[in-house]
Amino acid sequence: MKERTKFAVTGALAGAANGFFGAGGGLFLVPLLVSWCNMEQRKAFATSVAVILPLSAVSAAIYWIKGGLDLTAAWPYLLGGALGGVIAGRIFQKVSMVWLRRVFGLLILYGGIRAVLLL
Length: 119
Known about the structure:
Blueprint: H1 3-21, H2 25-35, H3 41-65, H4 71-91, H5 97-117
């Protein structure tokens, strides 16, 4: 399969996750960019962040058009998320890949356990 096709399929999976769940596209992107698209892991994390912004903007716009987005309620999370993103972006290069993988894995595991137990 051509590399561009792999990137497009990977992006489509991330977009679908964002559309269905309101987030989570990065959970598809990072593992697929590393294993299927042969991207270095640190670059995959950074690429995932860059890709999620427009995917989230598209998903948010659709939710807003359909009346499912409360912008007033979203502002505090947006501001807190932006602050967290700036802080994490500054320390990203200082954290070892071992710890980044561990934290990423724990977040996936935590989300999966919550999803199963809260149903």
